[in-house]
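Form 12-C: Joint structure prediction
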Amino acid sequence: MSRMAVETLDNESTIVNMGPQHPSTHGVINLRLQLKGEVIEAVDPNVGFLHRSIEKIAELTQYTGFIPYTDRIDYLGAMFGNMGYCMAVEKLLGVEVPRRAQYMRVIACELNRIINHLIACGTMSMDLGAFTPFLHGIREREKVNDMMEKICGARLNYNYMRFGGVSLDYMPGLDKEILAFLDRFERFLPEFNRLITGNEIFVQRLLHVGVIPKETAIHYGLGGPNLRASGVDFDVRRDYPYSVYPEFSFDVVTGGHYPGECGDSYARYMVRIDEMRQSARLVRQAVEGLPEGEYLAKVARNPVPPKGEVYSKVESVRGEMGFYLVSDGTDKPYRLKVRTSSFCAMSVMPEIGPGLMVADMTAFFGSLDVVAPEVDR
Amino acid sequence: MLKQYFKNIKNASTSIFEGLAVTLSYMVRKPITIQYPDRIEKPLPEMLPPTFRGILEVDTGICTVCMACMKRCPLDTIYIESERDPETRKNYLTRFDIDVARCMVCGLCTEVCPTGAIRHSTEFDAVTSDVINLVMRYVQPGDKIPAYKVSKEEEPPGVPQNEPYCRLKKQWDAPAPLQPDEVRGAVRWKKQTSKQEGR
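Section 2 - Result
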């Protein structure tokens, strides 16, 4: 990341700190902007405020004991941290996950994706000055959170998955409750679109703002909705299938057919809205086809995997989340590297930021849907 | 050009009214806001599902003193001491502390417990003026509780499934006063046997 903002200071431009306590930088992220009038000349993202050295903690904790820490990598998509880490260790151990557990994992992950995208769209409209859609999103999220409480016992840091399955079986009647929510959610999305997505002022603030071209998106390693909005047809769930995703039918939403151009902030917003529909579709298929059987395979209480290294990746809410795990044959990992997409989304800012106005910066930053703990880990 | 200009104005105003219509329709619906905490029918811990992971609670009567929970905890939240009677060869539980302030309610300890002695309550509001009061002592100093023996004929009491379970309530009303020295002792223990050895 460049440090040019300070060195090339001339008397006409000003340096402004946006964050770490700016309301539109959710979490603590500091963006140093070099401004000429209201136009941004250079952006210098200053990350590291939330560094908790999760990778080092992994080396000091037993394999099972690290599962709760994976919640804290990305607190809005905690299920995906669980999923990626458990998949990595299962690969090392050679554990077969029962089919019922696989289905339950998919349901939990896709509900988590709905939660995150509701928050992402809500906070993005809040950054642009519309507070009501945020409350509508939060209200709907609360319904999923109540279900999550029944599914796994917590509302935010789920700690749901274990090596070889999940921690809890469903309470009686929970599958019907999930289906009832999905019916409700299908009515909610058109209403949300009427409320904010079709709003002309909102649309005009996003169209042609912060356009990320296809090549730039690939070069910077963006992932998830940010990458797909730029027109790249890539989804780990489909291209590198894991769990039971190949058994379900779902579409990979890409930008390009929305108003405006491919890769602008509006495309990123709309990809999230449409992904919620696909997630709801996935959850419905999984709940209706939920098989009977075990929810947790028999795995040693304190597993000691053989020597070796493994990489597992999942399609997190923010893109590809990878866990590179090296085992030296003891009960603690030798090395764990976590690859997250929020960091890539931050690194693209110095490239795209110059030329934007400060007000557009909040729109651009909101559309990237960066979560600060995931940037720093 | 001029036509487009007026069209934009029309678009903007109609789309705003569209959104306002949605907001207006919520004015006549039943509000979903719950006036917490004084206008709910029953206390919130009783409304939460039984799967909810709240503050940890311990039934010392069925604790086998296997210390599985203490070994499993990634944060060294639980501290257990036991004593073996040299004559009768019986095991006694002499100390069972849980530092609620340190606990991250991950639930790993409850899964390894063979009898369900340690489990989550649905209590969650651990509010106190001094953080020392958050160290929950389940065995009073000087007490000796015989370890529970799991017999093969008899099923272990286990966990009552799917019903609200608040054993903690009684304990929480009158937290045991704790001497600062004793807490420091627990902290010292954590330093000595810490899992965090350098590599």
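Section 3 - Comments
The mean pLDDT of chain A is 86. Residues 99-127 of chain A form the longest helix (29 residues).
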